[in-house]
């Protein structure tokens, strides 16, 4: 029985190791504004685009699904996944398509293309790291010393005829 348990334990470890190698990287890989979908090594990649890519002449072919010859950062800006200031995103490779439609979105004009061998999509990361900006604050605590007693208020009693002082 111990041999079977050891075998199943080892098999479970191998399974977990295989899953961790196939998982998406937790740290985005930096790319350039000119990196194309065809340049991505993995089917699913987490990448980070630099700022000011929208200022460059980027080639983007398609809408929502982009030809692999398109700029990944340009496609991400076009799709609204990132802004001109850059950011992290997911890119997912897909098979090629027959038609890639053009559109103008978020300041990027994509082009039409009749056919390409591979495609990709871009999407937001589920949990992007957030930078917290602000000023530090302190909480004012009461000074140590004798505690003040709460004042007790006596409710005014009203009589039937509206005169104060007489209790009903």
TrEMBL record:
Claim: Magnesium is one of the keywords in the record: no
InterPro entries named among the record's database cross-references: CRISP-LCCL_domain, LCCL, LCCL_sf
A Pfam entry, by short name: LCCL
Keywords tagged on the record: Disulfide bond, Repeat, Secreted, Signal
Residue intervals of the LCCL domain: 27-120
GO cellular component: extracellular region
Protein localization: Secreted
Location of the region described as Disordered in the Swiss-Prot/TrEMBL record: 143-168
Biased composition (Polar residues): 158-168
Main location: secreted
Secretion signal span: 1-23
Name of the featured protein: LCCL domain-containing protein
Taxon lineage: Eukaryota, Metazoa, Chordata, Craniata, Vertebrata
């Amino acid at each position: 029985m111990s041999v079977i348990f050891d075998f199943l334990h080892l098999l479970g470890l191998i399974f977990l190791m295989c899953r961790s190698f196939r998982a998406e990287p937790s740290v985005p890989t930096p790319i350039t504004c000119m990196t194309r979908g065809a340049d991505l090594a993995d089917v699913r990649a987490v990448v980070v685009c630099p700022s000011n890519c929208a200022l460059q002449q980027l080639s983007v072919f398609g809408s929502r699904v982009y030809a692999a010859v398109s700029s990944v950062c340009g496609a991400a800006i076009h799709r609204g996944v990132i802004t001109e200031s850059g950011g992290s995103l997911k890119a997912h490779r897909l098979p090629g398509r027959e038609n890639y439609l053009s559109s103008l979105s978020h300041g990027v004009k994509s082009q039409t293309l009749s056919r390409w061998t591979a495609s990709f999509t871009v999407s937001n990361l589920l949990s992007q790291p957030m930078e917290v900006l602000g000023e530090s604050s302190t909480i004012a605590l009461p000074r140590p010393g004798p505690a003040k007693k709460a004042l007790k208020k006596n409710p005014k009693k009203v009589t039937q005829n509206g005169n104060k002082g007489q209790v009903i």
